[in-house]
Amino acid sequence: MDTAITASTTAPARGGGQPLLRQKGAETQAFGTLKQLPIGLGHDTRMYACQRLNHVLADTQILYSLYKKHHWLMRGATFYSLHLMLDKHAEAQLAVVDALAERIQSLGGVAVGDPRHVAELTSVPRPPDGVEKVPVMLSRLLDAHERILIDARDAAARISAEGDEGSADLLVSDVIRTGEAQVWFLAEHLVDTPLVRG
């Protein structure tokens, strides 16, 4: 008796609950293109904003990943506090990632999402695959933040000049303010202060 399961030769009944698996098709919108949305912003303004936001988005996704990696790899006497702080910072960066991606979509663009595509767009240097010393990991996070903050400030000013105040506000309110606060917390962990004697 043959116990192998064979595919049914009959089509599933309509509404029968069978998922339509392994579907394939062409892209419906290519990366770097816009669909028209009635939001009162011209094509060129929206295109420029999407390009700048996608670059910040790619860097922010890498920053989020660095936070998670360093959260897992913390060592030493400050392990617990840094482990928790880095995870909290990662959660805040994930919220920024989502806000940036949704803004790009609301402009009619396509948000960068695939990690392999993100790696092609980011300006944040790739860290070693292994473990670094704790101060080096914190310094790496600070460097990524600074790159994003410089880019976000420039993008906010230029996008605002193009008339897209919504994108400029997102960059200032979410990317810059969140980044500046996190830089402060990180940098204070690199101050060489005695723990016992003053």
UniProtKB/TrEMBL annotation:
It holds the Pfam family Ferritin. Residues 51-195 form the Ferritin/DPS domain. Gene3D superfamilies: 1.20.1260.10. Residues 1-11 have a biased composition (Polar residues). This is Dps family protein. SUPFAM superfamilies: Ferritin-like. It comes from Streptomyces lateritius. InterPro entries: DPS_DNA-bd, DPS_DNA-bd_CS, Ferritin-like, Ferritin-like_SF, Ferritin_DPS_dom. It comes from the Bacteria.
